[in-house]
Structures are given as structure tokens and as C-alpha cells.
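lol forgot to send this yesterday, sorry. C-alpha cells for the thing we talked abt
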């Protein structure tokens, strides 16, 4: 059973005798997040639910905590103010910027800022404590679906050979692994006057920067022009190979996270939740299938070598 906000508040010795207010806050598809004001100073509490990692939907909680600390050192993530290992939970710096939405990440003028935020994270002074491979993740999520008898789209398995072909190409000569977030939907970006920051390191690990960019493109449903803008902004100039790799990883992101939402729908849906996990899975699967059967896929595979 996951801990509550009050459990976490009681575990921070530095707050003893201080005024702790609980303020409204939205967000958190898996873990519990809360906006606190401690003696007038805003902070964010993130209470980690062990069931998320146990279901294969996040990295082990100790790894998430360690990577959150490294992300903070890079300047991309919020500062870590307290670690409550017993629960576990994190108290983070409150970022007063604006949480981005789907339409925001698609604006051409903002896309280079997303690339800059990724470069900042990827240049962290220390590596993350674990590795992340989207192909291994896909296989693990599919195994979880099979083990629990969860519903998966009827033609999903028909496309496994194409995904395996992507794996052969994208892992043949990969760039050096970098500290990657791996779950960059719009709501994990916060826009501040000094730039864009990144929150929520539930799926973080050392990985391929091409997947990081492809994941952004998948979550934002980027067309080829937006995707090329993102890849070229990240590399600092025209980069046809990175652009091709990013497009292939865009497809692999949707292909893999289709299963993430199938699992969440089947194992972790909570009474009263208004989020449509199955609808999200269906949308990702539709986009993945379209990309994996696109006539231009062969050309992308050639460019990505």
C-alpha cells in the first residue's frame, strides 16, 4: 500500500513545529504528488507507489530517487530538498513555471527549447544509476501482459517482426548512452523564464538520446517537419541520420507505451479515476501501427544505419 501525504509530512524532522499547508495540485498518473507550503515556502512532495515499479511501469524506486538527484545536479530537474527513504518519498523544489500542454510542445518556436532541455539533462555531471533500453522494455511489458492475461490489441503481435528490424538497425551503432528521462510527455516539461525544466524521473535511465527525442515526437504527435526541427536543434545543425533514428524511435515509443497503458488499465486502475488509460493505449497503438506500416519505413531504416 502506498503512503499518504500525511505519512510523508510526519517523516520530515525539519518540518517539526513548522506550519505545513496542503495546496491544490493536479498531475501524477502513477505516483502521488502534492503541493505543500512550509512556513510560506512552496515545495512539492512526491510519494512513490511501490506497485508502479512492481508492475513494471517504472524503474525501481531507489533508482528513481538516485536519478532525480542527478537530474537536479544537471540543472534540468528540480532540486531535491528531502529524501524520505522509509516510505519512500521525495520533497522537491517547487518550480513556479507553467506546465506545458500538448499544443505547447508542438509550437515550432518552442521545439528548440525542448531540445535544449534535453541537452542539459544529457550533460549531467554523473550518469544515472541504471540503464534503459526501449526494446528490452517492450519485451518486459509484453511478458507482463501475457503473465497476467491482460487484453492487448489483437494485431499487436503481428507487428513484432517489424519492431525487431528497428532494433537491429538502431542498436547496431548507437551513440554513447546519456542520462535520459524516457517519458517526455508535455506535462513533464515546466517552462520558466530561464528555460524549460524536466520533472518526474519514473522511467529514467542511461539510454539513447535518439529515443529521448523520438519519445517527445511521439507524445506530441509530431509530423516529419516538427521532428526534424527537434532533431536538428538537438544536434546543432542538419543531421539526417539522427532525424531518421528519431522517427524510428517515435514509432517504437508508441509501440512500447501502448503496453504501458494496457498494463495500467488492467492492473492499477483506481476507483474514481477519470483518466482513460485504455483510450490512451488505443491512440498510441493506432499511431504505432501507421508508422510501422508506412511505405517510407525502408528509407528511414537505410538513413538510420
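and heres what i got for the seq, position by position
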Amino acid at each position: 500500500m502506498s503512503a499518504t501525504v500525511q505519512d510523508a509530512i510526519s517523516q520530515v524532522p525539519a518540518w517539526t513545529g513548522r506550519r505545513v499547508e496542503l495546496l491544490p495540485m493536479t498531475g501524477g498518473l502513477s505516483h502521488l504528488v502534492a503541493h505543500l507550503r512550509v512556513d510560506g515556502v512552496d515545495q512539492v512532495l512526491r510519494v512513490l507507489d511501490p506497485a508502479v515499479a512492481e508492475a513494471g511501469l517504472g524503474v525501481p524506486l531507489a533508482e528513481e530517487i538516485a536519478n532525480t538527484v542527478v537530474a537536479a545536479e544537471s540543472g534540468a530537474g528540480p532540486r531535491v530538498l528531502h529524501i524520505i527513504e522509509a516510505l519512500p518519498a521525495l520533497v522537491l523544489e517547487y518550480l513556479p513555471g507553467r506546465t506545458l500542454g500538448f499544443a505547447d510542445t508542438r509550437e515550432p518556436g518552442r521545439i528548440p527549447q525542448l531540445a535544449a532541455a534535453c541537452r542539459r539533462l544529457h550533460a549531467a555531471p554523473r550518469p544515472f544509476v541504471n540503464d534503459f533500453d526501449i526494446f528490452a522494455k517492450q519485451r518486459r511489458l509484453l511478458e507482463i501482459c501475457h503473465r497476467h492475461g491482460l487484453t492487448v490489441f489483437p494485431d499487436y503481435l503481428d507487428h513484432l517482426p517489424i519492431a525487431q528490424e528497428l532494433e537491429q538497425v538502431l542498436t547496431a551503432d548507437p551513440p554513447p548512452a546519456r542520462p535520459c528521462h524516457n517519458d517526455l510527455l508535455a506535462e513533464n516539461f515546466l517552462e520558466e523564464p530561464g528555460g524549460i525544466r524536466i520533472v518526474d524521473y519514473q522511467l529514467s535511465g542511461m539510454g539513447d538520446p535518439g529515443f529521448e527525442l523520438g519519445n517527445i515526437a511521439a507524445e506530441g504527435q509530431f509530423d516529419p517537419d516538427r521532428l526534424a526541427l527537434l532533431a536538428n536543434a538537438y544536434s546543432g545543425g542538419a543531421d539526417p541520420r539522427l532525424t531518421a533514428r528519431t522517427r524510428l524511435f517515435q514509432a517504437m515509443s508508441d509501440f512500447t507505451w501502448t503496453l504501458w497503458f494496457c498494463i495500467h488499465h488492467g492492473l492499477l486502475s483506481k476507483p474514481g479515476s477519470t483518466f482513460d488509460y485504455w483510450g490512451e493505449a488505443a491512440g498510441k497503438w493506432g499511431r504505432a501501427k501507421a508508422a510501422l506500416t508506412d511505405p517510407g519505413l525502408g528509407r528511414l531504416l537505410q538513413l538510420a544505419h
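The chain has two domains: 5-94, 99-304. anyway ping me if u want another try
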